[in-house]
Input
Amino acid sequence: MTVEAIVGEVFNLDPWNVTDLSSKDTLAEWDSMGHLSLITSLEEHYKVSLSIADAMEMTSVGKIKSILKGYGISS
Amino acid sequence: MTDDRSTDDSGLRTFLTVLSSGHSDGSLLPSTLLLEQALERLIISSPQQAQELMAQHYEQVSKLDGKGRLADLLGRRLVEIKLLKEATEFVRMAFRLKWLGEGGVGVRLAKVLMQEGNHSDATAVLCAALEQDPANVAVVRGLYDSAAQSGDLQQAERYRGMLVTLDTSYSMRAYVFKERQKYPPPGRDVGIGVLSSYVLDWLIPYLDDECRRAGLSPKFHLAPFNQYMQEVLNPGSQLYAGKPDIVFLALALEDMFPLLGAGPKEEELSQVRSTIVEHVLTVIRELEVRCNAMIVVHEFSSAHRSGYGILDNRLAGGIAPWIAGVNRLLAEELSTHERAYLLPLDSVLSWVGKERSLNPKLSYMASMRLSETALHELARFSMRYIKPLKGLTKKCVVLDLDGTLWGGIVGEVGAEGVGLGPAAPGIEYVEFQRTLLGLLRRGILLAVCSKNNPDDALQVIRHHPHMVLREEHFAAMRINWQNKAENIREIAKELNIGLDSLVFIDDNPNERELVRQLLPEVHTVDLPKDASLYRRTIEELSDFELLALTKEDETRVAQYQAQSKRKAAKSTSASLDEYLRSLEIEIVTAQASREVSSRLVQLFNKTNQFNLTTRRYQAEDVGRFMASAETILYDLHVKDRFGDHGLVGAAVVRKGPGVWHIDSLLMSCRVMGLGIETAFLERICSDAAGAGVMRLVGEFRATKKNHPVTEFYAQHGFGLLREDGEHQEWELNLSQAGIARPAWIRVAEERKSDDR
Output
């Protein structure tokens, strides 16, 4: 599953409409509770435990992808 | 790939050649590969032709290893070139023939169909997909969207339920919760307040789902983060404005005592204990004064290991013993508050595992102390308070026998051969029966509904050495070859409880389906195939909770049991006379005293059949009869060999000069047909005679329901004195005739003498 697909699932959006630029500022559904839900889903899907600093930094799809690289995950 | 879509018909040619020659030359493997390749080319170049060929030669296609891939490819091609009608037809067929085992292409097609507004085809495709891929969330999502968009509210709710069952994550819960807010509430309202020292926002979608499954329409009020005290203390707060039915109070030890993890000193611990308990009690007292809600306090629980390690429970300052002590103290205090309950949070979390219950990151990032897994379990457990509060507690479990209460089929293996015993196999059924016996002790009735020869089944129930539940434990039994829905309806009638108070347990899925369809009000439990999970299945039901265990709960069972024994006696006694004698009926009649007034008022107002005048006397009338020297108010108590029926009859007699007048005479229909009424009347006669009165007049007023007693006075030798429409008066001259008390009834001494 791609990051786009996970973001689409968590926020109930068509993954085709999710891009690297999709972020907390562009998606209304991506609020603070939604952010936690997204972090949980990412951790569960990629079987990884993200540091709190990283989790808080993941505010756009592009950022999520580059941070995940640091965990050895290419998405 | 796109340049292949020209008019290349090599695929078609190869396909037909291989098909006509492939079977005869015996080289099946290469020919199937050839076929697959040919089909793939054809699908790309001429999908419509490929569809026709695959439909026509479906038997050959079914033999291909790559059929799933090919079907998926063709489905996508047809969608791509917008041949939606063909795509729908093909994809449905591919699911039906099990070429497609995974819902993907169906979901894709359904999405396009829905965009075109064609919900019926979209639904058909997705239903076909669901058959092959029943756990596919995307398929159910599609079905939900289609149902919601086409306005089928009932189906939409069904699919929402399936979605949260398939995907227990918070995001799915939250999505379904949001969707549900758009639709009118389905059931009875329940107002739920949540007060917490940590962030419990995520509990709401889980709790909402559980409430809706129970047929309730919940309205939530969640106090803003860490503002529960303001909400509690402010009489104008939103919490109270919402008039909650139930308030959950969830306080975390770590929030009240942050130094807990740092090895606090013994004196500090004991001081903090009383501060914490006093704080909780303050909240409870405020809530009790300001609203009518039931209050459910989460007990304290910690997932952290103690700094003292394995010495923790040896030390006076140990953390685990201290937490247990706080909870014990809370439990004691709360037991004196009628509306307050302590929710055993620690055992709720243990059920799913402490390690899975806490998400440290969410807790640090957002003060969310409980994980999704824990919230789900907590919501499920919370229903154990909400259901009884809303009167949703079930009253009776209807049980199948073969495969449910014991292993095997008694008609085939005989009474000795059934699976029941102290070791496996057999122990799992014994344990299941013990759990059911536990329910019975709580006041939940048990009944049997089995397709069996009664003799075979009773042989096991009466004589099998390892049977835990015996005849006396069942309030009703239906062992016959009738349709189970019919039997269950009869059981409900016999026990005089509603179908919606019944839980039906049967290992046979067909019987469950039948009952589910014919009697949707009955809660039919999905029993797992593996009998070692039966016990847990019952324990996990939140339908049997009581808010208090009253004496009635225990005696009610005894009464039903006595009733079933009486019936058993009736079927074994050769003659009616013998049966009546075997009951050893004993009656006590006396002038009623104050203690029984409320029961008398109840009898006057609800007795319909055996009621000669149906005068609905109220408490003040009863008081007046007791005080007056002109009237006698009799009460009638009945007992027999099997149990005490209690106060079941009453009569009002007005004393006049030379004549006594029976103003009212009534009796519960539970004791009709045993001659008790004759003994009761005889007692009134002998009292009159004892007072030197020789004329007795009995009144009768016909109602729609009292026809069983139309002939009552005539049968007892009274003559009709006068008649006026529905109203009759009957007379008996005691100097000429008397009434004989039935020989099988003993009249006990009065409980107390009264010389009025």
